[in-house]
Amino acid sequence: MSKLDNDFLALKALSHNLKTAFGSTSVEVDKLVTMMALSKLAGNFYHIRTSLETLDKHLTIDDIERRVLNERNTQMIQAPKFVSATVL
Fold it and tell me: Does 68 reside within a domain?
């Protein structure tokens, strides 16, 4: 079961418990639980969106191209790993 399924089941249980405590026809309980669910979902989407924006800021095309060029230049500058006997 996913975390979202678990959260939904927890909210259903909370709704049931509150309705039992305050009366089975309590519309306010439904409103409260719905607002809690929407708040939770909004928080999850906000976290995902801000995480993607943060990732996007750190991985721009220029950064990726610069990193690739740096790796290529480093490989070209590095000395050979072995020297042939004929060169010596």
Answer: no
